[in-house]
């Protein structure tokens, strides 16, 4: 049984953990409070970014030609190309990453430092609904 620090954790985070059976370590908890400090329902989609946050950074910093499949493999242990495709789409739409046709890999976008810096994530809206786009406010 995992002992979470429930004195600081919101009810919505505990519900998210229980409903989705997701293990969130202290790094995820720290990211939750530093990046998603607003508990409004619109941040629900951004919670998917918490799992991808560290694997994406690691792959982008260690691989010579990073691909999205490498990020997913780092996160879940195997490459499942369709997995987290809406997150990939969002990260491209808000210019955190982009696909380089010349290098045939993903590269850091203009908002990479903003995404990984000390700023919270209120500067963009993430949509995962079919046909909806994520955008920078």
Structure explained in plain terms:
The structure is a single chain. This protein has 137 residues and is mainly alpha-helical. It has one domain (11-136). Helices cover 42% and strands 9% of the residues. The protein has helices at residues 11-20, 26-35, 48-62, 68-76, 85-93, 112-116, and strands at residues 97-100, 105-108, 124-125, 135-136. It has a two-stranded antiparallel sheet with strand order 1-2. Strands 3-4 form a two-stranded antiparallel sheet. Strand 1 (97-100) and strand 2 form a beta hairpin. Helix 3 packs across helix 4. The longest helix has 15 residues, at 48-62. The termini are far apart. Mean pLDDT is 75; it is low at 1-24.
Topology, pairings included?
Blueprint: H1 11-20, H2 26-35, H3 48-62, H4 68-76, H5 85-93, E1 97-100, E2 105-108, H6 112-116, E3 124-125, E4 135-136
Antiparallel strand pairs: 1-2, 3-4
Helix pairs in contact: 3-4
Short description:
The chain has 137 residues and is mostly helical. The protein is built from six helices and four strands; from the N terminus they run αααααββαββ. The strands form two sheets. A two-stranded antiparallel ribbon has the order 1-2. It has a two-stranded antiparallel sheet with strand order 3-4.
Shape: globular
What topology, given as strand order, has the largest sheet?
A: 1-2
Oligomer: single chain
Helix content: 40-55%
Q: In DSSP terms, counting alpha (H) and pi (I) runs of 4 or more, how many helices?
A: 6
